[in-house]
Amino acid sequence: MDLKTRLKACARNLGFDLVGVARAGPAPSVDRYEEWIRAGRAATMAYLARPDAIEKRRDVRNLWPEARSIIVVAMNYYTGEHPPPDDQPRGRVARYAWGEDYHEVIAERLRALLEFLNQEAGRPVRGKIYVDTGPVLERAWAMQAGLGWIGKNSMLIHPRLGSYLFLGVLLVDLDLEPDSPFPFDHCGTCTRCIDACPTGCIRPDRTLEAERCLSYLTIERREGIPEDLRPAIGDWLFGCDICQEVCPWNQRFARPTPESAFQPWEGIARMRLTEVLQMNEAAFRARFRRSAIRRAKWRGLVRNALVVAGNLRAKALRPWIQAWREHEDPMLREHAEWAMRQL
């Protein structure tokens, strides 16, 4: 059994559902990415447009000159349906944040995979690990490594797993035989994700208007949410899964993962808005210390809860909303005023 075959067997034993190899070099589809940046569609995420970051995304060897091969892994995070336990006002959380922070889970296992290579390659192997943590076009490299195709909603889709997949990348200074790129785009004439998006952020050219994407608005955006977009947020407290929920590949092929790290924490899938509206910053840090939800930051999550409370016309939350109308933060005061007007 050759090294690459043993590597893939080790990856699967570590819990990865998919693993593929690509040769280090110029990134696939980098021209489309740079065009998206130039068109100003990254909203306030200025770190994506930094010249040094763009240069590194063009070719992983600009990021790490020793890179010879790119190992791309994927883990299924679908855990089935979890209806709300009661009729209290609640906000929905995107599936990827229901369990432990995927960055840490996948990085730990990629370190184990690198250690395996060090034991099996016949020489020391150096590597660099990226789990949505550096200037690497993970989805493009995943397609190059044969893991699936990039759908109209910009998600990587696998024909037997769907798109509820976490991706990780391990760059190594070792020549491994590359896998064939995924050969087909199976979206066809389907436009379900485009049609279902409440803000119309999915463009016909398969790019996103980040400034209108609910995931961007509720996670990455640090300022107030534009008033005209607040109704479209509905009950999404953190992130959004709509374009994945309507995808036929998920409806047909998504299957629950046995991975314990991604099982939903109690009260997370649909969080009680009273919990968020009573939470101070210290409580936020303690509650979400090992969760991807901390990316939104305390201020952002409270802002989102006020928007959801307004959209739900949740009169029972009036005392908590009223308290935020008197807060020292002008952005949170304004969102509380808006929420109160919706009741």
How large, in whole angstroms, is the Cα Rg? 21 Å
Helix-strand pattern, N to C? HEHHHEEHEHEEEHHHEHHEHHHHH
Instruction: Please give the alpha-carbon distance between the first and last residues.
Output: 66 Å
Please identify the structural class as seen in this structure: alpha+beta
The DSSP helix count reads 16
Can I get a quick summary?
The protein has 343 residues and is of the alpha+beta class. The protein has helices at residues 3-13, 30-38, 51-58, 60-63, 102-120, 138-144, 192-196, 214-220, 230-233, 242-245, 248-253, 273-277, 281-287, 297-311, 318-324, 330-342; strands spanning 18-23, 69-76, 90-93, 127-130, 149-150, 156-157, 165-172, 236-238, 270-272.
Question: How would you characterize this protein structure?
Answer:
The structure is a single chain. The chain has 343 residues and is of the alpha+beta class. The chain folds into two domains: 3-85 and 94-172, no CATH class; 192-252 and 265-342, no CATH class. Helix content is 38%, strand content 12%. The protein contains 16 helices and nine strands. The chain has helices at 3-13, 30-38, 51-58, 60-63, 102-120, 138-144, 192-196, 214-220, 230-233, 242-245, 248-253, 273-277, 281-287, 297-311, 318-324, 330-342, and strands at residues 18-23, 69-76, 90-93, 127-130, 149-150, 156-157, 165-172, 236-238, 270-272. The strands form three sheets. Strands 1-2-7-4 form a four-stranded antiparallel beta sheet, with helices on both faces. Strands 8-3-9 form a three-stranded mixed beta sheet. It has a two-stranded antiparallel ribbon with strand order 5-6. β5 and β6 form a beta hairpin. The longest helix has 19 residues, at 102-120. The chain is globular and about 65 Å long. The model has no long low-confidence stretch (mean pLDDT 97).
